[in-house]
Amino acid sequence: MSRLDAFIARLHAQKALLEYVAARIADVPGPVLELGLGNGRTFDHLREILPGREIFVFDRAVSAHPASIPDGEHMIVGDIRETLAYCAPRVGSPAAFIHCDLGTGDPTSDLARSDWLAPLIHARTASGGYVATGVKLDMPDFETLPMPPGLEASRYSILRKR
Ligand SMILES: C[S@@+](CC[C@H](N)C(=O)[O-])C[C@H]1O[C@@H](n2cnc3c(N)ncnc32)[C@H](O)[C@@H]1O
Q1: What separation in Å is there between the alpha carbon of 87 and the centre of ligand 1?
Q2: Residue 74, Cα to own-chain centre: how many angstroms?
Q3: What GO molecular function terms would the record report (predicted)?
């Protein structure tokens, strides 16, 4: 698969998964955490499909399209290894949904990242809350949900905290 095809497949999977989870969290209290603002595309989609849900966005720097930058209270700047660990006073309750879009596509660096990321995501997810992740996360109290039809081959997975 060319990198262009892989990029298109990733965007397709992201859109479908964000909508899949958004349709299931009505009864789960808590904010949404977007890990990786990047260009702001998935943040922009999340705020469109989840109006009224508080969304906090994490990235080490703000380099998004100007129309897709959260307000200062909801943009948490810094290394996620530190900011996710210490965000509770600002973010409040554990999250109903965490979208983790930090993958680099490099297996070694993604594996190293998943090692410190999994316990942080575990701690910040509400009971019954969802995680959609492009980085494999080993989290014992979570069940891995079947992927929506057509997305089985995607690098993404959907997890739900028991
Ligand atoms: C693939 S991009 C996110 C794309 C974005 N979701 C979008 O739709 O445009 C990944 C982002 O994660 C950020 N990132 C990766 N590792 C990070 C870390 N340890 N701490 C903070 N930000 C990190 C990068 O700066 C980059 O902006």
Answers
A1: 17
A2: 15
A3: methyltransferase activity
